[in-house]
Specification:
This protein has six helices and ten strands. By secondary structure, it is of the alpha+beta class.
Amino acid sequence: MGRSGVLRLVRWGAAVMVVLMLGAWGAVWLGLTGGGGSVAGLPGGIQVGGPFQLTDTAGHAVTDASYRGKWMLVYFGYTYCPDVCPTELQAVAAGLDKLGPLAARVAPLFITVDPERDTQATLAEYVKLFDDRLVGLTGSPDQIAAAAKAYRVYYAKVTPKNGGAYLMDHSSFLYLMGPDGQLRALFKPGMDGTQIADGIRERMNAS
């Protein structure tokens, strides 16, 4: 089986894992609630998000409590990502621009799922390609695993048979956490900056 076949299998497996982890969230996948059908809210009884201990690009230890009082817009990805991560981060940057002054109330966080390669210096250079407000976070493999588990994020290393550089397969939601640290909305992959800004503004106005 070639590399494309392997990636298809892994991505199929990733989709199954996400469905299992978020099985009660059919409305989330389909985007049936809120934001004109584009933003999914939090169904009752489901817990997503929670404590994390990571390190920012300046070498400072941070936790979820470090951002308490702000809206966190959280995305899990990695700097060597060839496609979906750059697309999503461009949408985040566009969304922040469209929020105008309200963007000052948002902490946009990019948490790597590839701590082996994503050093503080690598993350610092990468996030600046998209927006100076974007905060890159890394940590030990155990710290990353704990954060991903809290947010119900799937990720796995994919090593091509030809011995080339490995890839990381991962789920691709944007998580909007309220100032209290509770999940307020999920943004599906592929949403644009306007949809993201409208979804954030709607949640801010409702709080």
